[in-house]
Every structure is written in structure tokens, then in C-alpha cells.
Hints:
Blueprint: H1 6-11, E1 23-25, E2 31-36, H2 37-42, E3 46-48, E4 59-63, E5 72-75, E6 83-84, E7 94-97, H3 120-132, E8 139-141, E9 160-164, H4 176-185, H5 187-190, E10 192-197, E11 200-203, E12 216-217, E13 231-236
Antiparallel strand pairs: 1-2, 2-4, 3-4, 5-7, 6-7, 8-9, 9-13, 10-11, 10-13, 11-12
Domain ARB-07466-like C-terminal: 116-229
Pfam family, one: VldE
Keywords: Carboxypeptidase, Hydrolase, Protease, Signal
Amino acid sequence: MMIRSLFATLAAATVAIAAVNEPCYGSGGRAGVCMTTSKCSADGGTTINGACPSDPDNVKCCTKASCNSGGNCRWKSDCAGTAASGFCPGPSQFKCCSSSATGFGGYSAPRIPSVGSCKKVAVDGAKMIVAAWPGRVREIGCVRDCSCSSGNSDHCCGKATDMMCSDGGGVPTVSGKQIAEWVMNNRGALNLKYVIWGQRIWDARSDSVKGWDKWKKMEDRGDVTANHWDHVHVSYK
């Protein structure tokens, strides 16, 4: 996604906020939604502390382990079975899923960008990620029509890929965490600069290896795509 200034983003980390009604990871990694504790309780959910770290005190990660006689609440994009509305807390895309399977991915192999405006390091990186996570990447974005200059997104220079991992743009998922941490752990082979997932950023030039929940927080940019809840952004050196 568009990054006006990576360094400004990092400087803003201490005042970053999570986005209400967007995803979070609850107890045991269960899919959740950031929402007020009162609304969560009224809808039959339970909250945990710390998963929506910089929101107001009354906004926490809400999960609901069971719904509608054997279902479980999760984001529709991640449901391997049928998904029913009206049984789960949060927005309309957080539904009661009839399957206990994760439902991550299941996509046909995406088109890999060709080398040109999209630089070879990005093309090679995209190939590695797709090969490591078959069926998990639906689409790949690389180049944007913008000036390749200091402070602009690496997409402007063809040195970044957006690894779309939900059922569509703007469709939330919690599936990207595994991919993002794999990218961090394979930083050398990918020639990684930084990776973003779920409003958190890890910079290969300065950060130590750690779980996604310990990465630097980013500000709320206003929607699922801008907050990187439908794709993993990978920038290359």
C-alpha cells in the first residue's frame, strides 16, 4: 500500500491506534474483531486485553467461540463452510461459520508480474512467496503510477508486492499473519526491506526477529485495505 514516509510511520508508532470493527487475534489465535466491550458482551462474545493495544480502554478484541448450534465466529473470507449472519458480534463480514477448518486460501495460482516496471527482485520475491504458500495468494500487485522518489511507496519504483490473501479487495482476513512472519524469517533470500501486515510493520534494516504481535504498530488509515487486513505488503531492497 501507499507509504508516504516509512520513517514518519515508524515515528508515529507510539500513538498508533487499531481500527474499530477490523480484525484482531483473540485467545489462542482465534479470529476476533476490535469493538466496545459492552457491545461484545451484548452479542455474546468475550474480550481479551492487549489485542487492540492503543484503542480506548473500552475497545478490546472480541471473540465468540460458538454460534448457531455448532458453528464458530470468524471472518467470512476464512470460512471453509457456509457462513450465516446474525449470530456473531461486529460487522456483517464477521459471521457464523459451519466448518471448524480454517478456510484460508484455496485460490488458483495468481499471475506473477513480469520483469520490467516491476523489478526483478520483486518478481523473484513474489514467486518465492507463492511457492511457499500455494493456494494462499489470490492476486499480486506490484507497480503503481506514481513518482519513484524518496518518501514514496516502493510500489512507485516497482520494488514492492501486495500479496492479496483474502476473497477480495477490502475483504478482511486473519490469514496473512503466517505469510508475513514467513517473509520476515526468509528476509535474506527475499532481499527484504520491510513487510506490513495488520497495521504492524517489520523492518529488516533495524528490527530483531520477533512474532507479528511484537512488530511496530501503525496508525489507523481508515479501511481494511489501507490497514493491511486483506494483503501482505512486501518491500524489497
